[in-house]
Amino acid sequence: MNIFQSLEYDENYKSSSSKLAEQIEIFLKQNYRNAITNKDLEVHFHVHQNYLARCMKATFQRTPLEYLMDYRLDQGRSLLLQTDWSIQQITEETGFSQASYFSKCFKERFGMSPKNYRQQYWKPAN
After folding, report:
1. What average pLDDT does the chain have?
2. CA 32, 29, 111 angle in degrees (round to 5)?
């Protein structure tokens, strides 16, 4: 009987932790343009930041701030390909505080600078 109770508890724990991770994901996607810290997430979700990180790691294999960084970079990449905005405009739109930091992170993730990425992949509308 204890085994069944333990399995039921594990399933409830996993579902509640994955639900929380999904709520964090939605929050991050809706607010990625703003500065967000672990403390901000802790206050918003009324749960300790370590638990938030564990839930995100279990569901998305990334901490909330790693997820946020990846999402911002993906948004930046999309803007590079879909707009003719300057790197500075894209930096501000994606929640980075400095273009140099955006460029550094972008290069680490995609293997080239935002400028080179745009030159290689952007197809302007005719």
Report:
1. 90
2. 70
Per-residue tokens: 107: 């290069």
**With contact defined as beta carbons under 8 Å apart, do 74 and 66 qualify?**
no
Q: pLDDT tens, 11-34?
A: 555 578 899 999 999 999 999 999
**DSSP-derived secondary structure letter, 86:** -
pLDDT, tens digit (0-9, with 9 covering 90-100), for 64-79: 999 999 999 999 999 9
Helix (H, G, I), strand (E, B) or coil at 71: helix
Angstrom distance (rounded) from CA 4 to CA 125: 60
pLDDT of residue 7: 44
Q: Is 80 exposed, middle or buried (0-12, 13-18, 19+ CB in 10 A)?
A: buried
Long-range contacts at 21-25 (CB < 8 A, ≥ 24 apart): 21/55, 21/56, 21/58, 21/59, 21/60, 22/59, 24/52, 24/55, 24/56, 24/64, 24/67, 25/56, 25/60, 25/67
